[in-house]
Amino acid sequence: MERTEVIVAGAGPTGLFLAGELALRGVGVTVLDRLPEPDLNIKAGSVNVASAELLDRRGLLPAAEAAQRRFLASVGKFGPTVEAAKRGGRRFLAAGHFAGFLFDNDLIDQSDPVLAAHRAVSNGLGVPQQEVEQMLAEHCAQLGVDVRRGVEVHGVRAGDEAVTVETSAGEFTADWLVAADGGRSVIRKQLGIEFDGTDPEMTGYQAIADFEDASGLRPGWTWTPNGVYAYGPVPGRIFLSRFRKPPQDRDAAVSVEELQEAVRDVTGVPVTITGIHGRATRFTDHTRQARHYRRGRVFLAGDAAHVHSPLGGQGLNLGLGDAANLGWKLAATVRGWAPAGLLDTYETERRPIGAAVLDWTRAQVALLRGDERTEQLRKIVGGELLRVPAAMNRIVALSSGILQHYDVSDTADTAAAPVGSIAGDVELTSGTRLADHAHDGRFVLVDRSPDGRFAVSGLADRLAYVADPADEPSLLVRPDGVIVWASSGDDDQKLLDAALARWAGAK
Hints:
The protein is an alpha+beta fold. It has helices spanning 13-24, 49-57, 61-75, 79-86, 113-116, 129-142, 186-191, 256-267, 314-335, 344-368, 372-383, 389-400, 492-504; strands at residues 2-9, 29-33, 97-98, 101-102, 146-149, 153-158, 163-167, 170-179, 195-198, 203-211, 220-224, 227-231, 237-242, 273-276, 281-284, 287-290, 294-295, 298-300, 306-307, 443-447, 463-467, 475-477, 483-486. Helices cover 32% and strands 21% of the residues. Strands 1, 2, 5, 6, 7, 8, 17 and 18 form an 8-stranded mixed beta sheet that branches. Strands 10, 11, 12, 13, 14 and 15 form a 6-stranded antiparallel beta sheet that branches. The protein has a 4-stranded mixed beta sheet with strand order 21-20-22-23, with helices on one face.
């Protein structure tokens, strides 16, 4: 029997990012994944701004930007997002769509202060999920994370002092276990955690296929009486949804015949598909959320905690957010400096975010229906509301994840302050950025006082202190990028001490 400090079940983006967060803080972690090789099925085509900022804070933005350049070279000219990215510079860019309505970067008000604080990652959004996984796998390898592939989890025995995972390769024991093993999580089921939600009403497909003649397919998003489809931007890439129940055998591979029948039904075009590159993906709008994200020494993250339709690629981003929130808290617990109740804040902070994303995806599915009334609704939403710059700003900010907010202060009135929000792009007078000081996963205290009055001693193992005299608020930022204190002139030292005690374990 092998023993480590933390076992992570699942080597997708959620599991790998979480493993990296633990390893950054010196925690021994073993990742177990049932697949012998990384999953190459076509999935999300980009990350949102909040996810790109997570990569930025760990020094992975250059790799993300390189991946975006490769992606743009592969798709050529396609839509305003790509064209805006090619123009370069640091603008707030939106990659994605809402129910098939592509975000129009030409309608975004770049003077919006909310958006202006999140521009640094604009050239690192177009990163397909496979590239994200490869990037994170390399990151974990550099940190010495033990990733075991081809190891299937069969069961779990959770005790008061340890957790034992039963696998196809024998038993593994750890102090803690994180289940990032997908929507059909064996671990969640074994623990009996309820998975509440709604059954699917539509089935979708995504593939890169060889078409005998694809001239009848319209590029971009097209709604039809039988569903919606998107053709491109990658040559041969087809994405479609139709309002039919999934087949009984949901694990069966998607055949050429099944994909061709679905494409013909939704598009109304009698295409002939001669082959599929790799494997096609079948998905539904099955939407559920775990009633609890923690059971003793076991945590749920990513799809193990919540499933929904993949419209907009929100699953990838939601899972990365889970990993970023839990990773440093679990590391603090293992290292012995976590304040009382810190681990409980994972569920209280992330579960409402997950519920909001589930509602976000349900709303998109509702707009895809092929009936006449829904078609009229789409004309109002897409043709009127989303042509208003203020509405476009709001919906891309929501989709980008930058409006996430946590209740992180018991003592301060944060209604008009950044406390509880994601830090975004904070430029310092030294020419560096806040993200440059967060690569090792510590808290960052940016002291902008003229006399260094907020300097902290004795916490170097968990806090990076940055002196940056400037006429701006000083900030204390958690490892996941959330601001937990900002100077305001009233009781600053008292509030800073309270924030350090609550989040960083300072005495």
